[in-house]
Amino acid sequence: MSAQKPATWAYSEEFITEDEVMDAARLRGVELGCPPVMASVGALLRLLAAAAQAKAVVEVGTGAGVSGLWLLSGMPPDGILTTIDIEAEHQRAAKAAYTAAGIAPQRTRVITGPALEVLPRLTDGAYDMVVIDGEKSEYPLYVEQALRLLRPGGVLALDNMLWHDLVADPATRDETTTTLRDLGKALRDNESLLPALLPVGDGILAAVKR
To answer: What pLDDT, in 10s, does the model give residues 24-36?
Structure first.
C-alpha cells in the first residue's frame, strides 16, 4: 500500500481553480461561519452531477452557495437545485452568489428550515443526486431520507466523511467521529449501493443507488 505524499495531495487539491464569483462566495461563507467545500470537493461534485446528467439535485447545507455553484455548473441547463439550510442569512448569501454567476432564478429552489422537516416532504425516487453537508449528528437520518429520494442510478455524496483525519484513527471515539465512521461502514456494506470513500478535501463518500 503506497502512502499519499503531501506534495501530491496538495497538488491534487489545488488542481482545479475557482472563478471570481466562487472566490467571493467562499469569502462570504468564511465570514458567516459556514466553511465552504474545498475547490477539489466542488470539482468532484460537478463531475458527479455531470456524469449522472443530474436534472434534479437536493443539497442539505446551502452555506454561502459555493457547493451549489459547483453542482449547477455540472447539471444540464434545465437542471434544478433544491438546497436546504436552517440559516436564512446563509441562503441570502447563496442567492446573491447564484445571481452573480448568472444562474436563472428558476434553476434554484432555496428552502429555509431544518432538513429533517423538509426532506420528508420531497417526492420518493424523484432525484438524480443528493448531497449532504449539514449537521454531522444527523447524517444517518439524512441518508435515510436520501435513499428514499434517489432514483435507481442516482448519486449520493456526503462531505466530511474523514472528519479532520479522525475517522481513520480507531482510538478516536468522540460522538461525531463515531457517527461518521459507523455510517461509512454501513454504507459500504449496504448491498443497494455502490460506494467509494475518496480522500478529497475532508473526505467524500460517494455512492450510486442500484
So the answer is: 999 999 999 999 9
